[in-house]
Q: What sequence folds into this?
């Protein structure tokens, strides 16, 4: 199989994405994960442009890199200037990376209107910049900025810029769709025209402004590109760069190329989530291959087919990229959805019991519940159908008072009456709000029987108004996330009374944790 070089620019081009920020320490951690994955090049940043990038290169040079070459990025030297006294050239050398990537202008519009220089001067700075870095012991990758737009405007001059980089000693020419506006057929036709006149290794760097970054990259590989540049999760300026996660999976699983050690494909999902989390972003659940929803099945017909053959509605085995198949329960579900969910959690129920739960799910969703993200509530609905199931506690009643007292302000007090093993327990607790007070009162009642409750923590509480046109009588949906030391689970409640909705979600959360041995 042909080997394709993966060139990651998450740490440089990716950080130009609005809302995506990495500290120097973050960049080191991401780079180490990329190295473990097995990418060929990691572009660390633009040395000299900011203190974070300077720190990254200083730290990176002292670290062991097993698979990747750390790369510094910059531009050609200044117009009408020499390479020896150019600050950008000096910063690239000072980074002490084995590889430098520099970009130059391919589009005559940029030469005359942006650089405000002549076409010949642009050729000079390309050739001399590459040659200078090469003479100083650097491997040089040349990024032909705006290549496809430049070719459309003047193909002869676009070729001249590539020839200048070749004369300077560039080991690979990277064709850039910088504005992200090219179509796949444009990419195929232009690369064919270029290859007819230049026999030199080339790569591809695409942006996603037309939602074509991935397909344009794959098209370039089919046309002969040996290197693909992009970012993890497709982060990048404007609409982003080519998503390397999808590209690596497509190249290796769909197209027969090698870009990573085969066993490392299973790390893609973990890497995707790691990069999002380290940038303090919520992972995109709908990303191909690695998103939580990538192999999630909601429609009853789909799930019924999946139970007979997993290939019926999945293009690959999710485990190949470190993901997993999920069945989503909602008002669109069929019996298969619930049977799959019962099997997943080890709940023993038959078709008749499942039919009853399915009817309840549909009825509750019509009232405002949403079980897609609240699998723990679904699990408990199924668990309660088991022949010998005995709930850890039974609610008798509860009450909540919220008061304002002079000198103390707002506080809440809740009382809970529950039955545990035939004993009726009646407890009260104060909290900073009604849900907190209910939680504390319930824990107080149960803690002597179930000391593991000390390890359950309410980690998130979401409220959504479903029919706002009803004003204060609107139905409210409450989602509660509970966690312990090793996992988290989500439950749901809905009612026109927010306290009732909260209690249902809270009670389900506690019952799930106790019943499913979440210790």
A:
């Amino acid at each position: 199989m042909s080997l394709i070089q993966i060139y990651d620019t998450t740490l440089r081009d990716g950080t130009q994405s609005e809302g995506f920020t990495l500290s120097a320490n973050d960049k080191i951690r991401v780079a180490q994960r990329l190295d473990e994955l097995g990418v060929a090049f990691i572009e660390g940043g633009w040395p000299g442009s900011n203190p974070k990038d300077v720190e990254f290169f200083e730290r990176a040079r002292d670290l062991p890199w097993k698979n990747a070459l750390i790369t510094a990025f910059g531009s050609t030297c200044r117009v009408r200037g020499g390479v020896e006294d150019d600050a950008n050239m000096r910063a690239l050398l000072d980074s002490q990376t084995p590889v430098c990537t520099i970009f130059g202008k391919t589009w005559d519009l940029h030469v005359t209107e942006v650089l405000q220089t002549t076409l010949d001067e642009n050729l000079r700075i390309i050739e001399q910049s590459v040659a200078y870095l090469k003479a100083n012991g650097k491997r040089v990758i040349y990024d032909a900025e705006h290549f496809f737009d430049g070719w459309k405007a003047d193909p002869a001059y676009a070729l001249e810029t590539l020839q200048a980089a070749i004369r300077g000693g560039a080991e690979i020419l990277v064709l850039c769709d910088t504005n992200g506006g090219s179509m796949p057929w444009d990419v195929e036709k232009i690369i064919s025209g270029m290859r007819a006149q230049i026999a030199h290794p080339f790569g591809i760097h695409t942006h996603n402004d037309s939602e074509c970054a991935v397909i344009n990259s794959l098209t370039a590989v089919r046309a002969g590109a040996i290197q693909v540049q992009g970012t993890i999760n497709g982060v990048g300026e404007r609409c982003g760069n080519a998503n390397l996660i999808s590209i690596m999976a497509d190249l290796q699983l769909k197209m027969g190329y090698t870009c990573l050690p085969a066993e490392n494909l299973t790390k893609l999902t973990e890497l995707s989530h790691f990069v999002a989390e380290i940038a303090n972003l919520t992972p995109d659940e709908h990303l191909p291959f690695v998103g939580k929803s990538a192999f999630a099945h909601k429609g009853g017909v789909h799930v019924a087919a999946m139970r007979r053959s997993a290939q019926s509605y999945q293009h690959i085995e999710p485990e190949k990229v470190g993901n997993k198949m999920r069945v989503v329960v909602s008002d669109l579900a069929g019996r298969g959805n619930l049977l799959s969910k019962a099997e997943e959690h080890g709940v023993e129920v038959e078709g008749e019991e499942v039919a009853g739960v399915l009817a309840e799910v549909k009825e509750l969703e019509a009232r405002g519940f949403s079980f897609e993200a609240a699998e723990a509530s679904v699990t408990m609905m199924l668990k309660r159908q088991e022949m010998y199931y005995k709930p850890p506690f039974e609610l008798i009643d509860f009450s909540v008072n919220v008061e304002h007292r002079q000198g103390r302000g707002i506080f809440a007090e809740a009382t809970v009456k529950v039955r545990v093993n035939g004993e009726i327990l009646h407890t009260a607790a104060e909290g900073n709000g009604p849900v907190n007070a209910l939680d504390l009162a319930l824990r107080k009642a149960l803690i002597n029987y179930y000391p593991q409750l000390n390890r359950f923590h309410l980690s998130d509480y979401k409220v959504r108004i479903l029919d706002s046109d009803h004003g204060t009588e609107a139905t409210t949906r409450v989602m509660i996330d509970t966690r312990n030391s090793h996992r988290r689970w989500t439950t749901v409640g809905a009612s026109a009374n927010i306290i009732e909705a909260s209690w249902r979600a809270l009670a389900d959360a506690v019952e799930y944790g106790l019943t499913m041995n979440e210790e």
Notes: The chain has 17 helices and 16 strands. The chain has three domains: 5-260, 296-383, 394-515. Residues 498-515 form the longest helix (18 residues).
